[in-house]
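To the wet lab folks,

You asked to see what we're planning to order before we commit. Fair enough. Below is the target structure as tokens, and below that is the sequence we designed to fit it. If anything looks off to you, flag it before the synthesis order goes out.
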């Protein structure tokens, strides 16, 4: 048996991102179910997943347990997969990482409220209020203490659960162009380049509608990912490949990527690849061959 994870819209649900990242980064088998925020079906989907459930993410464990909070998910996975080093080995670093995770879970409400996560776009001209600037200063101090000791690129050198918890904040800094130090910007850039984060964003671009509550009324900019392979959906083939790189099934949907036509077995596989071709090892393996 594997875990089953329920998440909300990948473009917007920052807590869902925190719940999903450990599974992808540390290759923990999981079946992912997705619900859409601000829809009548949202409450029904949560109730169907677990009676009384009101928030995402939530996880059903192979033993039949239910985890209904990202912090509970993190602690459970760190214990269940201790050999995969979800937390630092060094006792002092481990304590610091746990403290950073708890601090993120409980704090930075001004930043989270003023700058809701939106991985579909970046915004021009956002002027952070004083409360947001205070949260940013606190973030920089926390990150600097860890990065100075580890040397980066992540808080404790290698990626840990602490980085998973701060990933949505890094996306806010990137998406809103928030003013932080060069050292903090380098840490944000490490998140933007991380393959798991890029896969999550690509799936968000391929699934679900844009959500009106996240509209900021500001000019839009390209979300600041690393340079991507040019890609767009097209109506027809023929494709270079006969079978989908993800499922192995015959291709039915097509995209022009890097000047060639490639096939997938459904629109979601096509669109997540178009959103960020280099994020998907299964596709890049055939693209490079």
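Sequence we intend to order:
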């Amino acid at each position: 048996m594997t875990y089953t994870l329920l998440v909300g819209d990948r473009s917007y649900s920052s807590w869902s991102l925190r719940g999903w990242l450990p599974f992808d980064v540390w290759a923990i088998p999981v079946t992912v179910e997705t619900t859409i925020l601000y829809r009548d079906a949202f409450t029904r989907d949560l109730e169907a997943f677990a009676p009384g459930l009101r928030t995402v993410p939530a996880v059903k464990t192979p033993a039949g347990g239910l985890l209904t909070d990202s912090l509970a998910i993190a602690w459970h996975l760190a214990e269940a997969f201790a050999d995969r080093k979800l937390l630092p080995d060094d006792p002092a670093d481990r304590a610091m990482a746990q403290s950073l995770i708890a601090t993120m879970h409980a704090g930075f409400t001004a930043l989270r409220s003023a700058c809701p996560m939106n991985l579909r776009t970046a915004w021009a001209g956002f002027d952070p209020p004083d409360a947001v600037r205070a949260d940013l200063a606190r973030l920089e101090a926390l990150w600097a203490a860890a990065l100075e000791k580890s040397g980066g690129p992540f808080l404790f050198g290698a990626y840990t659960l602490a980085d998973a918890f701060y990933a949505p904040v890094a996306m806010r800094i990137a998406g809103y162009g928030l003013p932080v130090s060069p050292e903090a910007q380098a840490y944000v850039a490490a998140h933007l380049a991380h393959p798991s984060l890029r896969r999550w964003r690509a799936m968000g671009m391929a699934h679900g509608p844009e959500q009106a509550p996240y509209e900021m009324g500001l000019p839009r900019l390209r979300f600041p990912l690393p340079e991507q392979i040019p890609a767009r959906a097209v109506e027809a083939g023929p494709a270079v490949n006969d079978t989908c790189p993800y499922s192995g099934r015959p291709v039915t949907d097509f995209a022009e990527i890097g000047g060639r036509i490639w096939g997938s077995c459904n629109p979601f596989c096509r669109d997540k690849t178009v959103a960020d071709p280099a994020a998907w090892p299964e596709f890049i393996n055939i693209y490079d061959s």
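Structural context that might help your review: The chain has three domains: 3-84, 91-198, 228-288. Residues 73 and 91 are 21 Å apart (CA to CA).

Thanks,
Computational group
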